[in-house]
Amino acid sequence: MFKKSSYDGWILAAGAVLVVIGMFSIASATLQDSVSTEVVRQAVSLGVGCFVFFFFTYVDLSVFFRNANWLYLLTLLLLVSVLAAGTSVNGAQRWISLGPIGRFQPSEAAKLLLVLWLSKYLAGPNNGRYGGGIIPNFKNFCLMYAALGVPSLLIMMQPDLGTAIVFVSVGTAMLWISGFPWQWFAALIALGGSLLPYALHDYQRERLMIFMDPELDPTGAGWNIIQAKIAIGSGGFWGKGWLLGSQNRLNFVPEHHTDFIFTVIGEEMGFVGGICIIVLLFGIVFKAWQISKKASTSYDSLLAFGIGCLFFVHTFVNIGMTCGILPVVGIPLPFVSYGGTALIVDMAALGILTNIYRRQTTVMSKARELKTV
After folding, report:
1. Could you give the CA distance from residue 10 to residue 300 in angstroms, rounded to a whole number?
2. Which of 65, 137, 194, 334 is at a distance of 20 to 30 A from 204, taking alpha carbons?
3. At what angle do helices 106-123 and 68-85 cross, to 10 degrees?
4. Hey, how many other C-beta atoms are within 10 angstroms of the C-beta on 266?
5. Number of C-beta neighbours around residue 201 at 10 A
6. pLDDT in tens, 319-329
7. Higher-confidence residue: 238 or 212?
8. Are residues 225 and 259 in contact, defined by beta-carbon separation less than 8 angstroms?
9. pLDDT grade, residue 179 (50/70/90)?
10. Residues 109, 341: contact at Cβ < 8 Å?
């Protein structure tokens, strides 16, 4: 079933190792006297994620190309539904309750839907053939950002600054690779930077201020950053060992099984463990961009590039905020952080990358066969 030529070994191995490390880290962060509920739920999500991975590995991707408009409408519907009937946790309304099954976070699914939708419109109706890609003029630039702005605004209303950053960052990268002039992006970034302070909530402004100097409020807004640094630093080179991290076990770092999972890895697995996580995640990003370069169609190329950007932004921002080089925002670490929706979406993205890789190897093998005839 798993032919070497049809699957990228690095992508499969890296994804599997990351999931295993994530399960052990979640267990360490939530385990008390018995098996934690979070581990059980994450295991169930992993089972669903494996099914989703195989589905997206073998599904005909042209289905998504033909139905891009519906994908965009589905994205808006999901984001509106969470605002209308979502469950509020810690002041944020980002989840839809599914009863005993758990919770569904529409914004996580919306990220991948965005990449699927945007790839079609940047590739053009002819999938890049005969010069059919998007024309990089100012009109299309404004239209694309208007379309990106609607879901981003809905996400900001939850409020969820981290996911909104992912939306805009991935969308910008995909527009840039499609040939739009860099000067337009520079002007847009300058405009967005000047307006951003007016769009932020009070606690978000406070996070930005504390990022500059956490010691201004060491027991309040600066607590997360300070404790995260202590946890990672205390791990040393090799780490303290599984279940032996004091910062982790004594719950000094809030949300250390979700957004701050890297602190658990840094404390218990040390510098070596942290570097392994970074290499594995950025390895997947590099492989995604390699697949993008070799893709047989514009749609496949943009899709692989967008997924690579999705993993890149998540990894860079999550680890950056944990280490104190970026402000604190709520973004999970791919495959590692606790969160069923995020894990399932990550597995779906990995399945799409594998699907595109399989199509490449099929095209290349047929070309070789024709040469030998």
Report:
1. 19
2. 334
3. 160
4. 29
5. 12
6. 998 888 888 78
7. 238
8. no
9. confident
10. yes
pLDDT confidence of residue 333? 94
Per the structure, the complete domain to which residue 50 belongs is given by 4-372
The whole-number pLDDT of residue 128 equals 57
> For residue 9, what are its two tokens?
């070994």
Say if residue 51's pLDDT is above 50.
Answer: yes
Burial of 221 (0-12, 13-18, 19+ CB in 10 A): middle
**C-alpha to C-alpha distance for 265 and 45, rounded to whole angstroms:** 21
Question: If you average pLDDT over residues 271-284, what whole number do you get?
Answer: 95
Pseudo-torsion of CA 120, 121, 126, 130, nearest 10°? -120
Structural domain total, the chain: 1
Residue 303 has pLDDT above 70, yes or no: yes
C-alpha dihedral sign at 69, 70, 74, 80: positive
CB-based contacts of 345: which residues, under 8 Å, 6+ apart? 108, 109, 111, 112
> Which pLDDT value is given to residue 1?
43
Supply angle C-alpha 164, 169, 172, rounded to 5: 125
Q: What pLDDT is attached to residue 35?
A: 62
pLDDT tens digits, one per residue of 75-108? 999 999 988 877 777 667 788 877 777 788 888 9
Residue pair 146/118 in contact (Cβ under 8 Å)? The answer is: no
Q: What are phi and psi of 88, to 5 degrees?
A: -95, 130
